[in-house]
Amino acid sequence: MATALKKTLAIGYDAAIERLPEALKPEGFGVLTQVDVRDTLQHKLGVEFRRYTIFGACNPTLAHRALSAELDAGVMLPCNVVIYEEGDHAVVLAIDPMQTVAAHSPALAPIAAEVRDRLARVVDRLG
C-alpha cells in the first residue's frame, strides 16, 4: 500500500527544492519546517547520505478545520513533503492522508481527501 504520492521529476534536486515553495502556494500551503536529512545524519552519526530534505507543509485553513474536528489530528501536522536526489533527477513524495488514520475518521476523512487532492496537484506542478 502506497503511503505517499510519489513522482520522479524531470528536474534536478536543486531546482526541485527551489520550486517547492511556489508549487505549494496555489494550494494554500507554506513551508513551516525544513530538515536537511543528509546534514543531520552527517553531524549526528558521521555517515554519508544522499541529498534528502523533509519539508513540513501547512495549509492553515485545513489545519484549523482538522484540529477543530479532532484535536488529536495534530499528530499528523504538518504534512510532510520530501525531495531527494536520484541520479540527475529529483524525486518528490507527499504524505497521502487517505492512507492514515484520518481516512477512517468521519470528521477527518473529508479534510484528508481535500489535503490529498491539493498535495497531488503540488506534486504534479513540480513535474
What's the gist of this structure?
The protein has 127 residues and is α+β, with helices and mostly antiparallel strands.
Mean pLDDT: 96
CATH superfamily descriptor: TT1751-like domain
Largest sheet geometry: 5 strands, antiparallel
Task: Give the SSE string.
Answer: EHEHEHEEH
What share of residues are in beta strands? Answer: 25-35%
Structurally, how many domains make up the residues?
1
**Which CATH first-tier class would you pick?**
Alpha Beta
CATH architecture classification: 2-Layer Sandwich
Q: Quick one: how many beta strands?
A: 5
Distance between the termini: 23 Å
| CATH topology (fold) name | TATA-Binding Protein
Rg calc: 15 Å
Number of helices: 4
Overall 3D shape: globular
What does this structure look like?
With 127 residues, the chain is α+β, with helices and mostly antiparallel strands. It has one domain (4-126): TATA-Binding Protein (2-Layer Sandwich), CATH 3.30.310.70. Helices cover 39% and strands 27% of the residues. The protein is built from four helices and five strands. The chain has a five-stranded antiparallel β-sheet with strand order 1-5-4-3-2. Strand 4 and strand 5 form a beta hairpin. Helix 1 crosses helix 4. The longest helix is centred in the last third of the chain and has 18 residues, at 109-126. The chain starts with a strand and ends with a helix. The model has no long low-confidence stretch (mean pLDDT 96).
Task: Furnish the topology, listing elements before pairings.
Blueprint: E1 4-8, H1 13-24, E2 30-36, H2 37-45, E3 52-58, H3 60-69, E4 79-86, E5 89-95, H4 109-126
Antiparallel strand pairs: 1-5, 2-3, 3-4, 4-5
Helix pairs in contact: 1-4
